[in-house]
Fold this sequence. Notes:
This protein is α/β, with parallel strands linked by helices. Among the domains are: 10-33 and 127-293, Rossmann fold (3-Layer(aba) Sandwich); 299-367, CATH 2.40.240; 381-447, no CATH class. It is 27% helix and 18% strand.
Amino acid sequence: MSRRRFSFIRSIIPENALNFSRRTRFVRESMIERIYPPRIILPMKQHYGQEAVPIVEVGDTVMIGQCIGAPVPGTFSAPVHSGISGTVTEIKTITLPNGVVTKAVVIESDRKRTNHPSIHPRTNINIDAKTVMGIVKNAGIVGMGGEGIPTIYKINRARKYKVNEVLVNCLQSEPYATCDLYRLCETPEYVVMGAVAMAGVIGATKIRFLISESRKMECDFLKNAIETIKAEHPQFQYEVVLFKDRFPQGHFRLVARALYSIELKQNDTLENKCSAVLFNCSTCNSVWEAIHDGMPSVNRVVTIAGDTTSSHNVLVPFGTPIKDVLSKMSPVFSSCRVVWGNALTGLSCTDMDTPMIKTTSAITMIKMIESPKTPCIHCGMCYDACPVDITPNICYNLIENGFDNKAELENAMKCIACGACSYVCPAGINLTGIIAGFVAKNKATTTNENKNLITYSKEDIDVTDVSLLEEYAEVGSNSDDEYKDDESIELPFEGGRFI
């Protein structure tokens, strides 16, 4: 483990209850609580790209791990699987808090928790790269830190650029959030083995685990898992890299600045500039669950926290409505604002039927306090807090007055929607919301994400390609032949704002 402590230059280190360097330590539950909802509302778009197509109909019986939505071949997408067993009662269109409009499959639970027959531990895990890529692709694994990029596309991009380092993001720096820390404490061997599997597929020789220096317990679990595993996989170099406690930490641009002293431009990536690829530790965990346990991506650990309730982690099937999660928690008062996501990067939500998705790492309850709102006082605090060196107050004023071109010249497009500027603003201005919305609108226009989308149906898909884990090896990716990455794709910040 390196003695050096890494970080970027600017950020926020508040001197109050949200002091990230003095947060309460991660509390280990004796056994994580599992949520078994009476129904799930399963969106077909839980990832960055084209939504999946429902391949079930009303009245169909489904089981845990069964594919419910499949991507049309040739589209930038990921399949969706059921986390409960039951009956399909409805297929409807919903709108998520981030503005995504998508079809959703409603499944009523039969309370039997029946796994699909294809779900069982793999007896032989000495599998080749093509098989691993097929499993990752069709298990529906995406970036669970909030970015939502289908993991197979990041693997393909890393193979294209022949990267030499796999970086595992364990830098959970948001206040209250501890879901990734839970994974490091309870299933560290799955995190490490998932990283080993992807490093082997990519052809990387070095695996580096990035974690905050104050997380000593998590570091110990991680190092113990590495010591156990590296004897069986000595072809890789393993390193635990410590970062200073600071917010935000996990964005790939800030990682590039801290580790490699490289300032990435708008269309640059870690892969083509730093010969590295970054995966969230929960994503690595899901990769090994798919490879070893035969279970596709059907649930995730979610932190339920805030300043009005005791925080802990729960295991939640994707599609679980917020109200079913909160029903298991301490009383939530009417004066609380429910945030779909983390405290600073999440989105306020009033519809308690809003479902958990693959990128939802937390549900946060925050007291609704009306902060004073005044015109900008030009104090410069937002500039000092911004980790990507833009001037938020200037960008905000230009955008509000319609000077979009000038806002771009002021580097507004570099915004990573971390929420730091809004947090420190004494005038109570929603700097992040306005600037991040401007960025999202321009990216959508550039990539045609929200324009002229083709509508697909079940008939466009060969269902057998994505139904059973045993068949995944037959549809493994051929790397560059299927690589359709767009160099303009930006990996959003870990708040899940842009999907």
